[in-house]
Amino acid sequence: MAMGLSGGGSRRGRRRGGRSPMAEINVTPLVDVMLVLLIIFMVTAPLLKAAVPIELPESRAKAMSEEQGQLQITLRRDGAVFYEDTELAPGELPDRLAATPPGPDGKAPLVTLRADKALDYGRVMEVMGELNRAGFTSISLVTDVSGG
Fold this sequence. Notes:
- This protein is α/β, with parallel strands linked by helices.
- Helices cover 37% and strands 13% of the residues.
């Protein structure tokens, strides 16, 4: 009978019926969100590399690996030439190519040439001729391999 009158029994009842605050943080939702964000950034990062929007021709060729120190030349549909992300004035390409420093091995860097598929073949050959005259003999032509 004395046990029934003590306050210990009522505390146990309160603990069962009420909720006590949880002392541990559940990190599973945080990890799930971070993994989804990581996947989104991994998918979109290669798409952000091409700063000048052009429509590349399609090809069934295998994709090549990208190397550090590559020089990117882009030809837009309207004939504008871009050195990396900078638009060049007509006739400025030879000067910019002459001012390009050699790579760490002392050779001219690899050039990736991106040209819109609606461009005239002669315009692309003009730019390739300028590259060759400036000493850039390793030129990769970039195509869209998603259609292959």
